[in-house]
Amino acid sequence: MANLTPGDVIKQLQAGSHAGLYYLYGKDVAGVAAFTKRLIKKLDGDVQKYDGRDLDLEQLADAVGQYSMFAQTNVILINDPPAEDWSADRIQSFLKCLEDVPPSTVVICNVTGFDVCGGKKAPTPKHKKLIDFFGKHGVVCNFEAKTAAQLVKPMMERASRSGCSLSRQNAEQIAQLCLCDTMRIGNELDKLCAYAEGGEITGEAISMLVAREDSLNAFALARAVTARNGRAAMEALDILSQQRNEPVMLLSAITSAFLDLYRAKAAQAAGKHHEHVLEDFLYKGREFAVKNAFRDAGKSSLEQMRACILILRDTDAALKSTRLDGRILIEEAITRMLAVER
């Protein structure tokens, strides 16, 4: 078929038709996850779920050919097929399983644990092979990251469904505080609606309840550094400085963000999933940090990450052993990190 928007897919389903194959990916991870649930609900069939990391191709081939005894549709969900870690032969075998999908079977591949583009503008060659196949034989949906302006309308509608009113200006403020992370926006809106108790979500309530978390701002700084965007890095530093006046604590927040990225990059290099990092490094309550790190770690190399962490280590030692202005030392560290080759 083609590359379609989520809205186009829903229209097809409402018209009584569906594709046999769906590939869902993009920067908006929460959007991918939410639409996957919506798609499965619309298909109203028996669902078999598979982890792409541990996918048994013989078992998959058998599942594709099965006919459901209790529903009209046999739905197969494959989460995070790691094409970049597969050999050419395995990719070919995987696609062969999907060449002749029966009319009663729908196979959904959704990517929520890594960036198929590897930090670039276009998908990596191996992931592109999967995407091209799904685009030819089914439907591909790319959930691109949304801007604050794009998020305003659905945020206002969500608040309205909860019996609350939310102005455009306040919705945009929430989106910016959450760095346009749709998953966190949803959580913050639920909290604000509960506080408003059916009334208006005010700017005062947002300032009180939606924290401008230094971990998010520190991550924005780290992301800007790895993307070699000096202006954005210094702007993020200004915001962090307003929250943490003590240079040692400020540097600690920045270092923590770089460690998140380094762990994600190392996990990707080892073929691990974001859930492994969540478990191994006890990120409970900070799942967004790991998902964001997995999304953006592809923009840099392990060597770049190591060099940046060493610069931060040296800066920490300087902060604790000299009387030099802490802000200047941190700015120097950011300048040095921006100069590190990817």
UniProtKB/TrEMBL annotation:
Coiled coil: none
InterPro entries cross-referenced by the UniProt entry: DNA_pol3_clamp-load_cplx_C, DNA_pol3_delta-like_C, DNA_polIII_delta, P-loop_NTPase
Pfam families hit by this protein: DNA_pol3_delta_C
Highest rank taxon of the organism: Bacteria
Any one of the GO BP annotations: DNA-templated DNA replication
Keywords: DNA replication, DNA-directed DNA polymerase, Nucleotidyltransferase, Transferase
Catalysed reaction equations from the record: DNA(n) + a 2'-deoxyribonucleoside 5'-triphosphate = DNA(n+1) + diphosphate
Any one GO molecular-function label of the UniProt entry: DNA binding
Domain DNA polymerase III delta subunit-like C-terminal: 217-336
NCBIfam families in alphabetical order: holA
Family membership noted in the UniProt record: Belongs to the DNA polymerase HolA subunit family.
Official protein name in the record: DNA-directed DNA polymerase
